[in-house]
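Morning run. Coffee first, then this:
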Amino acid sequence: MAEDKVRLGGMALANGVLVHGPTSWACAIRTDDGDVKVVARRKRVLASKIESPLLRGPVRLLDAMAIIPQIRHALPEAKLPFQRPSVLAAMLGSATVVKLLRSSPSVRPAAQELVGGLLSLAPAVLALRGSEVAAYHGAEHISIGSYEQGKRATKEHNRCGSHLLGPLLVTTAIGNTLASRFPAHARGPARLGAQLFAVAASTEIFGWMVRNPEKSLAKALAKPGHELQHRFATAEPSPEQIEVAEAALAACLELERE
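And here it is:
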């Protein structure tokens, strides 16, 4: 009988790979000395237990974010992609530009939100492009994809978070455009509600895209994320980087199967 595959996700680091499943995570890095160091833990937040469509997306985001402080505590040598000064500067710069854009009366609200959403991507693209992160991102996709498919996979993966780009841009623009019509005193809470709506709706749309990859709409929504993966966010990894990704994968699967 064929083995049931564990549903896995992951994240690239500047010196390694994080792989996480429904109940566990594992992070493997290449140390400055050239050794592979691996840490695996149980998750504190279990998004897989949430059934509500309104809560699944936000809780999955919380699930992923909750792993970061655990990694920093258990594996201090891990280099997170957003730690670089250039990325932090890009985050500050894009936030400033988006704020100025939203205060401009000459730009329509829908255009403000769409352009603002695109500008908000700059730090993520900068974090992934160049250095070791893009190659470790490719190694993450190859290791997880090869496990799922039973053969060597490519560096692009159809369940990568980059495929949320299309749905998230659309839902965020719609939500924030509606929020901008609220009275000034209620606009802050309305924008917060719009962000929660965007995450929840995008996650559900993304799930539909994964289940229906042959649909024209699914292909159209996935196109921006695929191009981001192919051109900027991933690079062909070295055998040493794939070794690191496979170490994280094996450690995560070992905990999941216990």
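The radius of gyration is 19 Å. Good start to the day.
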